[in-house]
Fold:
Amino acid sequence: MRILYLGSSSGTSGHRAAAMARLGHEVTLLDPYQALPAGRVVSPLLAQWNRYTGGLGLVELARRWVLRQIDGAHFDLAWVDHGAMVGASLVRELKARIPRVLCYCIDDPFGGRDATLWRGFLGALPFYDLLVVVRTPNIEEAYAHGARKVMRVFMSADEVAHRPRALPASDYEQWRSDVLFVGTAFPERGPFLADLVRLGVPLTLYGNRYDRLPEWRILKPYWRAADASTTDSYANAISAAKVCLGLLSRGNRDLHTTRSMEIPSLGRVLCAERTPEHSALYDEDVEAVFWSNAQECAAQCFDLLGDESRRQAIAEAGRARFLKSPWRNDQVVQDILTTVTGTTAERVRVEKAAGS
Structure:
């Protein structure tokens, strides 16, 4: 198919677009944020404006820019990734030109953490042929906001970007760590990570906003950099770690995250919060290690650090389980395209996470 992909070329969005190309589709990728002025001063200001006004004025700029870019082009399907910068007017105009228009949203637009950001998205919901979500509560919430059809999938890892890699000695020395967490510093993560430090866990942190946490003084010696978000830096950091933490976002109502797939895919040990979804994904203490508080997390980390053979066995079993699962980008993307086009019997995933 000829697919118009409205999303970022980086991060998990870029991975999904790459999966479409691997599946044999012709993909035209346009990032609606490219419609906005850029610069060291302007970009942060526009990001704040977008977050607190729901893209007031910016969604219209994105609409005009996208329509200019695709003028005269023909597509079989449009895939909107994330969707915060795509409003109802643009979706209606896309549907006038393209047979199927869907939205895949990896965030939680109904959870309240970034409520104002999603005003345009919510207005566009009734016009999509399919909305794909990654949280069970989002199914009924989306229907309540007018969605026509909702499909639930788990988050996924990429078969290419997150395949195991052997690092050269110099890269390994740059990235190596004992217990690693890569991610943004949300408020609930500060006390937990500070508790790990107090318990003596040899922690390494990558990510932004840590300097805004009340626990920054405690965490600063363990923080290496604000950015390990490129595909290579993220994968290198995980590949050179002995134990990788899987923290959740309370504001996003997470019961699993992309790390839940990416860490095992890269062949490392997932040490994550115990949730129904994590327990459904992996056999505890065989394919991954779980915990319910900082004390249990610290104990698990020390045990894994002191037992290389167990650590290796869990990493290998976790990767084997991941490879048997459907939560790989090629499979997830194919399932979504099959569902929206109706080329075979529909396979709408609305199962409860713990029972999947």
User: Anything to note?
Assistant: The domain at 169-324 is CATH 3.40.50.2000 (Rossmann fold).
